From TrEMBL:
Pfam families, alphabetized: Hemerythrin
Naturally occurring in which organism (per UniProt): Salinimicrobium profundisediminis
Domain of life: Bacteria
Gene3D superfamilies for the chain: nmb1532 protein domain like (1.20.120.520)
Domain Hemerythrin-like: 11-85
Protein known as: Hemerythrin domain-containing protein
């Protein structure tokens, strides 16, 4: 494993946590869980995990890629996802859109942005990212209402 892929692995693990959120939303909707319970979970996830992850990307990762079309797309996706997550409505349509948007976006980051990042990192970039990335911990075990478990 190269230094570049070693550094990017924690970020990919964080992305898998987001995909896990998407799966939990799908399960909750499929099982007709109260939308308020699902929304409470997504709000918690946003503040505890997604906000710090987005901040890391916006402040330290995206600048390494320059101001290109893919970075602009990523920033637009961040705005759209934040808008869906802060919407006052708890309806099923918004939760479905949120789940779809997040899953699609994470796959874009993994398949396009992070692949580009791995190809273009230099030793100074690696050092800077290691300094700023503290492996955002996803404390799912702290969440008591695991509505996705039957």
């Amino acid at each position: 494993m190269t230094a570049k892929s070693t550094l990017l692995e924690p970020l990919s693990i964080e992305h898998r946590q987001v995909l896990h959120l998407c799966e939990n939303i799908r399960i909750g909707l499929r099982n007709n869980i109260q939308k308020e319970r699902i929304r409470t979970y997504t709000n918690w996830f946003k503040s505890e995990f997604l906000d710090p992850h987005f901040a890391l990307e916006e402040q330290h990762i995206f600048p390494l890629l320059g101001n290109n079309v893919r970075v602009k797309k990523a920033l637009a996706n961040h705005r759209r996802i934040n808008k869906l997550m802060t919407c006052d409505c708890d309806d099923e349509k918004v939760l479905n859109l949120l789940e779809e948007e997040l899953a699609t976006y994470i796959r874009f980051e993994e398949r396009v942005l992070y692949k580009e990042l791995a190809q273009n990192l230099n030793p100074q970039d690696l050092e800077m990212l290691e300094k700023h990335h503290d492996n955002i911990v996803f404390p799912e075990e702290d969440w008591k209402d695991k509505f996705w478990i039957s």
